[in-house]
């Protein structure tokens, strides 16, 4: 979805990404309120049996000539009343009405969509970007909207931290743009911004462990644990995910392309180089890698409370267990 297109009085939002749908509706509402600060907003569920009556009432002229911003949600499942009312309204849209119609995509309600398009609706693409490259591109455009630049490493770090959550990526781009004074925003800025977030810190620690940077992993672990013991479960989980990814990469041909590996391992293409590098550091030490897998299973039980009554660990004991795990897995052979 682009945020630069001017809002139209008849807008058709196609797709199921809620953030994009919200932005499309907000753009229309803001445009309407520039003309009439007292514009009223109505939301109608297209599947409601009495939705047609609600729609006609929302679009009816008022005594004081108020503007109406009317959102009709989910026209893929329109009731007969809503279907008929929409066809009537879009054929001759009243000057005081701004109409936003949402559809998740697909073929349901195709005839109604064609009628809405034929009436001159401006279509807004609200489909969620595909995981991986498209999501990273989305994040890059979010920084551009704020007139800020971010390095490739910074973008990759942000994607690694937040995954494919569009809403969180947009929020992070906004916050980083507001909080970081210099350009471009870097990987270090992203790491500092997310310091103390348990899930993100867990993946940072995991990367350090599988890169066999035990000192860095221990430093990050102790910094994270200072804020409480919530880092224990996310760290063990992140390490387990990292181990599974390394093993899956190890099972693929070295000649396989990054794109093929990314599809097989279910990671973005930029992550493949890191995983191959990590596997290269462990390929000659596979017994220790197997021991790390067993230690991870034990640490998972300890982090989650133990197997038996009374075996739960307090925060200091969890830190000790995690430090032992990091030393066992992250330290290089001597």
Summarize the structure in words:
By secondary structure, the protein is of the alpha/beta class. It contains 15 helices and 5 strands. The protein has 3 domains: 10-125, Rossmann fold (3-Layer(aba) Sandwich); 133-193, Helicase, Ruva Protein, domain 3 (Orthogonal Bundle), CATH 1.10.8; 198-330, Up-down Bundle (Zinc Finger, Delta Prime, domain 3). 58% of the residues lie in helices and 8% in strands. A 5-stranded parallel beta sheet has the order 2-3-4-1-5, sandwiched between helices. α11 (232-250) packs across α13 and α12 (258-265) crosses α13.
Task: Pick out its properties.
334 residues, alpha/beta, Helicase, Ruva Protein, domain 3, Zinc Finger, Delta Prime, domain 3, 3 domains, elongated
Low-pLDDT runs of 5+ residues are none
**Judging from the principal axes of the Cα atoms, what is the shape?**
elongated
* CATH 2nd-level architecture of the largest domain: Up-down Bundle
* First-residue to last-residue Cα separation: 53 Å
Strand order of the largest sheet: 2-3-4-1-5
CATH class of the largest domain: Mainly Alpha
Mean of residue pLDDT values? 85
Number of helices: 15
Instruction: Give helix % range.
Output: 55-70%
């Amino acid at each position: 979805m682009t945020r630069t297109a001017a809002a139209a009085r008849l807008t058709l939002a196609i797709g199921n990404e809620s953030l994009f749908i919200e932005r499309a509706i907000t753009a229309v509402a803001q445009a309407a309120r520039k003309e009439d600060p007292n514009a009223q907003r109505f939301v109608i569920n297209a599947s409601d049996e009495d939705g047609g009556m609600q729609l006609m009432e929302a679009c009816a002229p008022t005594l004081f000539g108020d503007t109406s911003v009317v959102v009709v949600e989910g026209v893929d499942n329109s009731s007969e009343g809503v279907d008929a009312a929409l066809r009537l309204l879009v054929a001759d849209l009243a000057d005081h009405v701004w109409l936003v119609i949402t559809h998740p995509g697909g073929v349901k309600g195709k005839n109604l969509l064609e009628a809405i398009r034929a009436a001159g609706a401006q279509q807004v693409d609200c489909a969620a970007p595909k995981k991986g490259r498209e999501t990273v591109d989305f994040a890059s455009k979010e920084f551009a909207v704020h007139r800020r630049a971010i390095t490739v490493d910074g973008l990759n770090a942000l994607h690694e931290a937040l995954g494919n959550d569009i809403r969180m990526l947009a929020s992070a781009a906004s916050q980083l743009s507001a909080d970081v004074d210099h350009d471009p925003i870097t990987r270090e800025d992203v790491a500092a911004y997310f310091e103390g977030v348990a899930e993100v810190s867990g993946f940072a620690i995991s990367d350090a462990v599988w890169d066999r940077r035990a000192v860095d992993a221990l430093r990050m672990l102790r910094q994270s644990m200072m804020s409480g013991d919530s880092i224990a479960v996310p760290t063990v989980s992140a390490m387990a995910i990292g181990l599974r990814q390394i093993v899956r990469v190890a099972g693929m041909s070295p000649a396989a392309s990054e794109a093929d590996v990314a599809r097989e391992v279910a990671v973005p293409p930029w992550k493949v180089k890191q995983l191959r590098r990590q596997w290269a550091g462990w390929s000659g030490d596979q017994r220790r890698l197997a021991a790390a897998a067993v230690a991870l299973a034990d640490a998972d039980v300890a982090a989650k409370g133990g197997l038996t009554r009374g075996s739960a660990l307090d925060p200091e004991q969890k830190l000790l267990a995690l430090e032992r795990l990091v030393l066992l897995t992250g330290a290089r052979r001597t």
